[in-house]
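Sequence only, no structure available. Ideas?
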Amino acid sequence: MSASRPEVAAEVLAEFRLRGGLKADNPDGWGFAWWEGGAFHLAKEPLPAHRSALFEDLSAKTRSNLIVAHVRKAKFPPVNTLKNTHPFLRTCCSKVWVFAHNGLVPDIVEMEQANGKAVCWPIGETDSEYAFCHLLSHLAQNSNDGAPVANAPVSFTSLAMVSELVASHGKFNFLMSDGEHLIAYGHDRLHYLERSGAPADSAMIATEPLPGNEGWVSFEPGELRIYRFGRIAERILTRPSGRMDSLERASP
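Reply:
I predicted one. Tokens follow.
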């Protein structure tokens, strides 16, 4: 969720929590990152979200303008540990980033292990965390020739290009944020819901539409959407044909 002001999203988060092993087959851990007081806060557990009292409490009480939540189905590796639980948190280019992934891109592990300009190294074993570090490495390379400059603008075009490349190795739908922007890449399976006006402008992203809300829209295949304070700031269509010269920028 991205919103123009801090708010409680108790209803939608309560429904999302049930997808952690009760209403959907995602029983292998949950994570909850939110922006508050100028910093990210992160809570996660390697157990089903629908059974977690902590997730239930956070869902009901957290007031934030930016939330990234995830429920996991362990695939690569099929190991349920805290280190393998999303979202992941890393610092790059003088910013703190969070990242959560839905899909499977095992080839990225070997690709990132061979990356001589890696800016971070996974703590866990997932292809998702390797993919996160891979994206950050490319962002660093395209930020003032790789120098970590505070408040340097994010190259969303570069991010779209590398996202398409990673997606060509499997399935790669993700959420990513630097605390200001909510970045969502829909390779083959994401939806968004936008609202404007009172009490706040807001946007929600989910793998599948959450019940109780009308107006969910499917991402275009290979679409990168960037939200800032609840409003669309930019969208880039990568046209997932495997061609890196096929980027198309669309006006919000």
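Confidence is low (pLDDT under 50) at residues 145-149, 242-246.
Hope that gets you unstuck.
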